[in-house]
Amino acid sequence: MDTFIRSFAFMQERFPLLLEKTGQHVWMCAVVIAVSVLLSVPAGLVLGHLHRGEFLTTSISNIGRALPSLAVIAIGLGFIGLNFTNIAVALLITAVPPILSQTYLAIDQVDPDTVRAARGMGLTPAQVLLRVELPLALPVLFSGVRIAVIYVISAATLATVAGGGGLGDIVLGQATYGIEGVVAAALWVAALALVSDGLIWGLQRLLAPKGLRVSGVGRGAG
Amino acid sequence: MSQDPSTAPVGAQEIVFDRVVKAYPGAAAPAVDDLSLTVPAGEICVLLGPSGSGKTTALMMVNRLAEPTGGDIRIGGRSVRDMDPIELRRSIGYVIQSAGLFPHQTIADNVATVPRVLGWAKKRTRERVAELLDLVGLPVNEFGGRYPAQLSGGQRQRVGIARALAADPPVMLMDEPFGALDPITREHVQDEFLALHDRIRKTVVFVSHDIDEAVKMGDRIAVLREGGRLAQYDEPRTLLKEPADAFVARFVGADRGLKRLSLLRLSDLEPAAAGEDSAGLPELPAEATLRAALSLMVAQGTDRVRVRGADDTRLGTVSLDAVRKAGAA
Amino acid sequence: MSDQPVLPDYGDPSPCVADNASFCTDWFTAHWSTLFWPALAEHVELTVLAVGFGFVLALAAAVLAHFQGWFTAPASFVASFLYTVPPLALFQLLVPVTGFSVLTVEIALVAYSLYLLFTTVLTGLREVPQDAVRAATGMGLTRRQILFRVELPLAVPSLVSALRITTVMTIGTVAIAAYVIDAGLGSLILKALQSPFNTLFIGSGALAVALALTADGLLLLAGRLLTPWARSRRNA
């Protein structure tokens, strides 16, 4: 228990340091998530719209999930040495599969009758995708982003291994910061993950169409 | 809007299926085979058949959700092949079994879909939505802001019809639109649609697998057999009286005589003068069907019913014999 | 990186080792039985222990939640909380309590595995066709008999897919556990970090990846063998 009390003292004393490392951590994760979303969402949208590539997306998702981040970083270290590319690749391998596979699933699962009605009314393929399929897919799509964010925040603590900075510098830096520093930074990372998860959940509630949340309410009224 | 023919309100148009074939690659037999029929402007044509008879495929070729592999379909004399599929679909109302409403949009937004993609002014769209929702008995003030999940099955289907009518299309395609409803609701929505059709007079192609629905809704019925071949195309009365072959006879059912009676009303017959002995007879309104009259006579063990006109006037009596003759005519 | 022999304590360096080339097969095979195999075995052991415990706990919780609806919300809240906390942080937070021990590692691994196991198993139980349950009730089976003879067997596909995901994730997490205990393939990676030695990096990294992919494939196969009925329906 003593360690935990001292870790709070550490937080007070080294607040600027924690803040700086948190900044690095968040920046690193934000860039990776942004790049992953830009890479995976359009691909998932198009594949899901065409109902093609189920094997491809599930394979990428299965393999991506099976690749241990530390092992990927280690293999990268062996081939290309200590640099940030390593970390970036490892984090992208972590983030792309859940976003890609959930985006694909989300679009693929939209009720085919709804899509047929939209096409039958003369909506263009782009209108069908953007006005009907995408809004209906948002909740599932967001669940993919949420998983990716949790994984990336977690994996980013390993960035320190390849000199990538972030809170991992302290979590894995017992020699420099002592056990109280390690515990303080671990608490900080945990809080960061929980807060980010909550924020994305909130964003999802905000963006997800209201009509999807009212099922069963006031049925058959009037 | 007048320069764009697909958006201008147009009267009903004739639909012609001309030797239409649809063969899916890899399938042994075509889904629709050499289908030729003409749906006169303003009429309801029911495509009737068992599953696998290609009726939905035939329907989807009209708005080019499926492309014919042979033959041609013409609407108002124009081949659908010569029209841009998107433009074509915007000029055709389309209603499907589950209504296909967009669950993330309000009822009003759902109905406004086609006017919006056609670029109508906001005010015009709003007025049209209100008019249509009124037409199907779901006033916009009460229902416009609700989501599909907040409506009953029958209400959702009525929204589907309103949405299909939004751009005042000359042609409507309905794919088992009432198939998912319970019998009582279905009957009700069918009646409502027939009343609506009397006012709007669109050309309607209606897919069904239910002979009773077909007899009730169709001005003409096209019976399709497996493999998408036309077995018979006739008015309901003729179809029931003279089935073209054993397949049609089996499909319309052994009770087709009774079904014919349900197409006729007491008011279609000349009632005999009611004598003094008519006092104890069962009574029916003039708009009752002959089938109901027959049923009542059998149940009550009589051979006549009394016919009641509007304002409770007595029009006379109809006998079992008269019913039988009418059914055989 | 360096022209000097990098790991003198691992014996006389071959030219490949001396150059620290990307991967020296001779060094890898020479140290297979003393270095790689033991680490691989430890890795498997830690994984099996964690997934086994996690599975039993999650299964019990899911069955309880299936019978007692109120238990679902608190259980999934706790599980999702533990799942959201990065495992490395969880390891370090446990160290002051349970020390640099296998116990610390296993507690964190089990905690991390609960969420996916619990939610997937519970979903599997809930998606059992109600008709099957009603028919079983009608035939006079007790609630317990229905659970063991109808619901759990029908939920096997979800059980297996939950095990699959959890196992590969745990294999990845065990690699990180090397920061707490000197065991598993992760500890070889950390050793290689101290004086960058490429063969050790790639050898242990590739072994971890191979282990995860093999486990994934084996569990997929096991799932197919366990659920012949799902297969025949697929083929029909």
Automatic annotation (TrEMBL), chain A:
The entry's keywords: Membrane, Transmembrane, Transmembrane helix, Transport
A Pfam family the protein falls into: BPD_transp_1
Positions of the ABC transmembrane type-1 domain: 26-200
Keyword Membrane part of the UniProt annotation: yes
Segments passing through the bilayer: 25-50, 128-161, 181-203
Keyword Cell inner membrane: no
Compartment(s): Cell membrane; Membrane
Bilayer topology annotation: Multi-pass membrane protein
Gene3D superfamilies, per database record: MetI-like (1.10.3720.10)
Chief localisation class: membrane
Record-linked InterPro entries: ABC_transp_perm/SBD, MetI-like, MetI-like_sf
Family to which the UniProt record says this protein belongs: Belongs to the binding-protein-dependent transport system permease family.
Name this protein carries in UniProt: ABC transporter permease
UniProtKB/TrEMBL annotation, chain B:
Protein origin, superkingdom: Bacteria
PROSITE patterns: ABC_TRANSPORTER_1, ABC_TRANSPORTER_2
Listed SUPFAM superfamilies: P-loop containing nucleoside triphosphate hydrolases
Keyword vocabulary terms for this entry: ATP-binding, Nucleotide-binding, Transport
InterPro entries: AAA+_ATPase, ABC_transporter-like_ATP-bd, ABC_transporter-like_CS, P-loop_NTPase
Keyword Transport: yes
Domain ABC transporter: 15-251
Pfam families, per database record: ABC_tran
GO MF annotations, alphabetized: ATP binding
Keyword Nucleotide-binding set for record: yes
Record family assignment: Belongs to the ABC transporter superfamily.
Protein's recorded name: ABC transporter ATP-binding protein
From TrEMBL, chain C:
Superkingdom of the source species: Bacteria
Compartment(s): Cell membrane; Membrane
Keyword Ligase: no
InterPro entries given in the database record: ABC_transp_perm/SBD, MetI-like, MetI-like_sf
Annotated ranges, domain ABC transmembrane type-1: 40-222
UniProt xrefs under Pfam families: BPD_transp_1 (PF00528)
UniProt KW keywords: Membrane, Transmembrane, Transmembrane helix, Transport
Name the record gives this protein: ABC transporter permease
